[in-house]
Amino acid sequence: MAGKPKLHYFNARGRMEPIRWLLAAAGVEFEEKFLESAEDLEKLRNDGYLMFQQVPMVEIDGMKLAQTRAILNYIASKYDLYGKDIKERALIDMYTEGMADLYEMILLLPFCPPEEKDAKIALIQEKTKNRYFPAFEKVLKSHGQDYLVGNKLSRADIQLVELLYFVEEVDPSLIFSFPLLQALKTRISNLPTVRKFLQPGSPRKPPTNAKSIEEARKIFKF
Ligand SMILES: N[C@@H](CCC(=O)N[C@@H](CS)C(=O)NCC(=O)O)C(=O)O
Prior knowledge:
With about 220 residues, this protein is α+β, with helices and mostly antiparallel strands. About 55% of the residues lie in helices and about 10% in strands. Its EC number is 2.5.1.18.
């Protein structure tokens, strides 16, 4: 039997967090090897482990996979979280690409210069309220089902709920006028695997803080 997937990143959310979420929601145990220094990253590069000299990298099923989306695609396919046919998959891709656009804005927020922060937060609030949340609320309303696609749990639900928690940290009021998103958040959070991941002590990482920014700067030299 194949061993546990091994995740290579530093000890923070960053681009690895959606991968942690998806594996955890699929009920897959994984190991993490944390980069602690620029030398650790250099070693992975010199050993030829990183296709584009970047992390996230996940060792899984004999592969060393790089590129966050490719890793998510593989996990979703493997654990049947990627729709039943190419049309469902196209919808899932469309939804998760939209989610990724908003996710990226929030991910980069802690790294922006202090004088730009208020404008960035205002933009995130505006886009969340007027573009992204209405779009996903509309999908749920259009079919009245419990999940975004195919009346069945998929990566789209898991990634959306991760995003809902992420947005909540910026502004908890943004979800107030979206009852179907609130209900989805509750439903997915109550799945046993997700509930476990949301408990303290799980591999879920805390919000980015000054310490993780400092660590990222040290490792990735920016
Ligand atoms: N498109 C890549 C981007 C990966 C990326 O930017 N990784 C950063 C850390 S979060 C990195 O390794 N930076 C070092 C470098 O680019 O040399 C992905 O989604 O995995």
